[in-house]
């Protein structure tokens, strides 16, 4: 709906930006806080669009939620697993993580719910996840494609399952963990490749008993009395990634990003940047309220192409558009392997970033399972670009605009608010015209 006109200058980065709190952790903190008994206090909470949707859904389920937007605080009075009934649908909009978490949460409630969603989620099949949750004893009624809208009625006699992951999805794993907490027997998830582990880590913090080993997760029964907690959410690495990429690629840049989450399952872009020859400094490492964080200092550097293995893909899952941009400016060729193993929404993202980058003269080869990107591609604006309502594509295009003095329009820029309201204002604080 809104267009953004980029500037006819190249920029470099200088200064310091504190990125918003992690969206992925915040979804889980709301869900666990809502299910728990007592009060949960979340600090450094960012009131991004996706998180507003999650807060509304858990309010509809009976949690009392108060947000102090200016202080970035959220206070939740949980329902102690007594979810409220509702005479209207629960609406997850297009928030994929929420949809998965919610289907797991509702598995253990005997109430009847209708879950509806937006255009993307009315197309994203939940076949794999629902097969597993049905195997635990919950009921889901939907079309044969297993998409939203959906009727859900859970069970108070859920049984654990053993799931050998056929797809590496943090969302599916998280949904099973949230169902498994309330099951009568243990739930075992045998890992394919590592995925973000925020749900299991935070579930333990709230009082669940989840064994987390490199290759297997076990959710033990009998620890379903979750208790409200206080936690501070670290900065979102996926938001920091825009500044990291921009500063690496624009000459004479230096930027500091304080208190960014450094959970090893999330920081694949740092490892890829290192493989490409970058040297990124991490200072003041700490772990407060479970998740590790630290200050990142990034200076512009010459990068070279690399091969990113299928094992790495989950740790860069939301950063693929930025890595494609980075690869296009490095020397030599970059190959990203294992992209077959991603959700529909993310395959749309890969297709869309390819279409939009081509309008800036950056091309790539998209094969069934790999992306191949040649380096040293000059940005040449051929057309205006579009976010496709994808926040990560919108922000990646803003970073691309800094590397060229040819202006263009980014259509549907408001998608940025999904994870990072205020991104453009923050970005402008650390840009200097070259
Ligand atoms: O669990 C999460 O918070 C997320 C998991 C990933 O999706 P998949 O589980 O589909 O890989 C990721 O792409 C998404 O942005 C957030
Ligand atoms: C795809 C994303 O999130 P979700 O799956 O929750 O919509 C994202 O944040 O990039």
TrEMBL record:
The active site is at residue 318. Coiled coil: none annotated. Signal peptide: none annotated. One of its GO terms (molecular function) is 3-phosphoshikimate 1-carboxyvinyltransferase activity. It is an enzyme of class 2 (transferase). One of its GO terms (cellular component) is cytoplasm. Residues 12-426 form the Enolpyruvate transferase domain. 3-phosphoshikimate binds at residues 23-24, 28, 169, 171, 318, 345. It comes from the Bacteria. HAMAP family: EPSP_synth (MF_00210). Monomer. Belongs to the EPSP synthase family. This is 3-phosphoshikimate 1-carboxyvinyltransferase. It comes from Companilactobacillus mindensis DSM 14500. The gene is aroA.
């Amino acid at each position: 709906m809104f267009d953004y006109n980029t500037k006819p200058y190249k920029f470099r980065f200088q200064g310091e930006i504190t990125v918003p709190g992690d969206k992925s952790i915040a979804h889980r903190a709301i869900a666990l806080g809502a299910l728990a008994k007592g009060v949960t206090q979340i600090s450094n909470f960012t009131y991004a669009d996706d998180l507003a949707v999650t807060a509304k859904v858990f309010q509809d389920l009976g949690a009392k939620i108060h947000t102090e937007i200016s202080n970035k605080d959220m206070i939740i009075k949980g329902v102690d697993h007594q979810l409220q009934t509702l005479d209207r649908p629960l609406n997850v909009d297009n928030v994929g993580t929420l949809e998965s978490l919610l289907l797991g949460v509702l598995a253990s409630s005997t109430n009847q719910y209708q879950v509806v969603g937006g255009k993307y989620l009315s197309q994203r099949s939940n076949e794999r996840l629902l097969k597993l949750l049905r195997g635990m004893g919950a009921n889901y009624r939907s079309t044969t494609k297993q998409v939203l809208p959906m009727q859900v009625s859970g069970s108070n006699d859920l049984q654990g399952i053993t799931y050998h992951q056929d797809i590496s999805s943090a969302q599916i794993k998280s949904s099973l963990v949230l169902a498994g907490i309330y099951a009568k027997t243990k739930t075992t998830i045998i890992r394919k490749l590592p995925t973000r582990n925020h749900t299991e880590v935070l579930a333990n913090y709230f009082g669940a008993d989840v064994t987390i080993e490199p290759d297997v997760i076990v959710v033990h029964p009998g620890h379903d009395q979750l208790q409200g907690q206080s936690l501070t959410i670290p900065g979102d690495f996926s938001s920091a990634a825009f500044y990291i990429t921009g500063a690496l690629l624009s000459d004479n840049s230096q930027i500091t990003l304080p208190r960014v989450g450094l959970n090893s399952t999330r920081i694949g872009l740092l490892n890829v940047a290192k493989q490409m020859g970058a040297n990124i400094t991490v200072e003041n490492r700490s772990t407060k309220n479970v998740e590790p964080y630290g200050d990142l200092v990034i200076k512009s550097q010459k990068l070279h192409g690399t091969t990113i293995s299928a094992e790495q893909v989950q740790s860069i899952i939301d950063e693929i558009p930025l890595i494609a941009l980075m690869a296009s400016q490095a020397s030599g060729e970059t190959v990203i392997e294992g992209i077959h193993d991603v959700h529909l929404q993310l395959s749309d993202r890969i297709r869309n970033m390819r279409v939009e980058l081509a309008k800036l003269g950056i091309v790539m080869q998209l094969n069934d399972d790999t992306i191949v990107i040649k380096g040293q591609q000059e940005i040449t604006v051929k057309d205006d670009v579009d976010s496709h309502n994808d926040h990560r594509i919108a922000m990646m295009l803003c970073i691309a605009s800094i590397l060229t003095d040819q202006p263009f329009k980014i259509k549907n820029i408001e998608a940025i608010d999904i994870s990072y309201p205020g991104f453009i204002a923050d970005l402008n604080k650390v840009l200097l015209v070259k």
